[in-house]
Each structure stands twice: as C-alpha cells, then as structure tokens.
Amino acid sequence: MIVRKDAGLNIRIEKRLRRDFLEICRVEDKPAAQVLREFMRSYVKEHRELLQGMLFRNQGEEAEK
C-alpha cells in the first residue's frame, strides 16, 4: 500500500543536533525523512490512547455548548 505524503513539517533545531542526526542517517544509509516518519509513527502509536481521550473529551465539551 502506497501512502501519499502530502504535508510538510518545519522545525528549528540546534545545528549540532542536525549535523549529528544527518551523519548518523548517512552512516545507516537511511533518508532523514524516513527516520523522522518512523519516529513519528511510533510516537503516535504509543500515545494514541491519550490522543483518543483528548478527542473524546473535546467532543463532549462541544456537545455541551
């Protein structure tokens, strides 16, 4: 299954962190974007319950208005 990548994310980080991250990605022969996407998927998966609870709570608040 091909997932369409249609959004971007710009962040500000320290030069040294960027340099070190890109160097590690190069050594591991992995595109930096791929590593970041893998991290984001893992992070969302681990925190999905929190996200769902927040969405459920927000829907309840909207219904009360």
Strand content: under 5%
Most strands sheet: none
| SSE arrangement, N to C | HH
Q: What Rg is obtained from the alpha carbons, in whole angstroms? A: 17 Å
Q: Could you give the topology of this structure?
A:
Layout: H1 15-27, H2 32-64
Descriptive overview:
With 65 residues, the protein is mostly helical. It has helices at 15-27, 32-64. The termini are far apart. The model has no long low-confidence stretch (mean pLDDT 88).
List keywords for this structure.
mainly alpha, 65 residues, single chain
Please give a quick description of this structure:
With 65 residues, this protein is mainly α. It has helices at 15-27, 32-64.
